[in-house]
Structures are given as C-alpha cells and as structure tokens.
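Final report, Chapter 2: Outcomes

The project's central promise was a pipeline that accepts a single protein chain and returns its three-dimensional structure in a standardized token representation, suitable for archiving and comparison. That pipeline is now operational. To close this chapter, we reproduce one record exactly as it appears in the project archive, with the input sequence first and the structure output second.
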Amino acid sequence: IAGAGVTRGYLNRPELTKERFLDDPFYPGERMYQTGDLARWLPDGVVEWLGRTDGQVKIRGYRIEPGEVEAALRQIDGVRESAVVARTEGEETKLYAYIEGHDQQTVRTELTKRLPAYMMPSSFIEMRDWPVTPSGKLDRKALPAPAEAAECRAYTAPRTITEMKLAQLWEEVLKNGPAGIRDHFFEQGGHSLKATALVSRISKEFGVQVPLKEIFAKPTLEEIAAVIQELDESPYAAIEPAGKQDTYPVSSAQKRMYVLQQLEDGGVGYNMPAALKLTGPLDRARL
C-alpha cells in the first residue's frame, strides 16, 4: 500500500492480509482515519513506515506543521520572505526559521505573540541570498545549516572563570557551537526542558541553586553568570538510590493516574507504547 489512510485498527487485525485489504479495504459501519502517513506493504506482510505525506513533524511530543509557522512569520510587518525547516540532530528534532527583512530579535518577539511556545523555532537565521532550484523555487535542502549560521553571529568571549565554566555547561546543553557572553539562551535553541538541564548542571558545578525563572528573566550568558556570583553557596546533593524492597510508595500524581485508569474501565489513554531494538547478550534478570 502507498499513501495515507492506513488505520491502527486495520494493522491490528490478524485476519487482514494484503490480498484481503486490496480486495476490500473497508469494513462496513467502521470508521477510517486519514493519518497522513506514507507506508508500503512488504512481501513478508510487514507495513513499513516511510514518512509523512505532508510536512508535519513531532517535536517534544507535539505535532507541528512548519507551514503554519511560516504563515505566522509572513504576517509580521517587515518580513519579506521566510522559510521554516525541521532538522533532526541525534535524537532531537528542531525547527529553524530563515527570515529576510527584519532582525531576528524583533521577529522572535513578535512571533511569541502569535504562536504557543512549543511551536517557536529554536533559531532564527537572517538571509540575504536564498538558494533556488533551476525552476526558480526555494531549494530548502540548500538552506545553510544552523552551525554555518552560528559562525556568522557576533561572538564575545567569556572574561571571568565563572563565565568560562558557564559557557562550557551552556555548550553541553545546547550543542550549538562556542558560547559568547552576549548569547541568548532561547535564541540559541534553548527551551524549558534545556533550561532545567542547565540549572541542574549549574547546581552541580557551582554549588548554587539558580531559580528556573532567572533563566527566563536573564537569558544571556553574562546575566546568568552574574546571578551565580550573587547567590549563596548551596552544596549539590545527588539523589541516592532507594533500598531494594518488594514494593515502593507512589506519588500523589501516580495515585491519581491509577484512579483515573480504573474509572475508565481499562482505558489505554495513559499507555505510551514504544519498540526498542537491543543488540548483544540480553540479561533477562536485569531487564
């Protein structure tokens, strides 16, 4: 099969063979879902997922259509051209916005008024010359990689020991090239989860507890370094493993989730299925 329209219900039906599906893909009285997924049926009966028929991507649990972000960018006064591309680096997918006609700080500020935080691009890259195909259309694959754009931004090196250590932590969290003291955490690809990771590393490295809200209020490396220097020392304490026992107490949130699951009479709304491929000898006891 090729194209959209494959449903979970069909894939879970053991009696549904390739021949049965092609002969009559519809079950009277049952609902079909347009998933937007592109797949093909292999000779051994396995359905192989090839991607999407649209540009939709999944970022930190949210399904996002880059075209919607582009449309919001074009509504900003002064933006003459824009493009939004999703790039996957390692296990993380990010949105990158390419803009012309306005500086990235102004565009970011205006875009936050139009889009929720999870749809905000990780980085804004200012363009002068756009790559085009022989037919004159935008060549998205030829747009400069974020690392190339990072080399073009102004860089001011750290001056103090605190700024140097913080810059190293910053680079470990953002993985976005050398960090200068004028760099803005969220403009360089940061978000709330990465801000939490930065706070944790600061606690371990400097022995101080930086409130998460300070990362949002003072997001440049220089400002965060100043906050660190003003805080009283609060030694980092690692969480110790619990002792081995047959049962463990659960949190209030876990109790609530269990009660909701029982009320739904066996619903699977809280199930998060995943498939993992393991290589090498398997220690079944540890698994």
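Archive annotation: The CA atoms of residues 14 and 208 lie 57 Å apart.
This record, like all others produced under the grant, will remain available to the consortium after the project formally closes.
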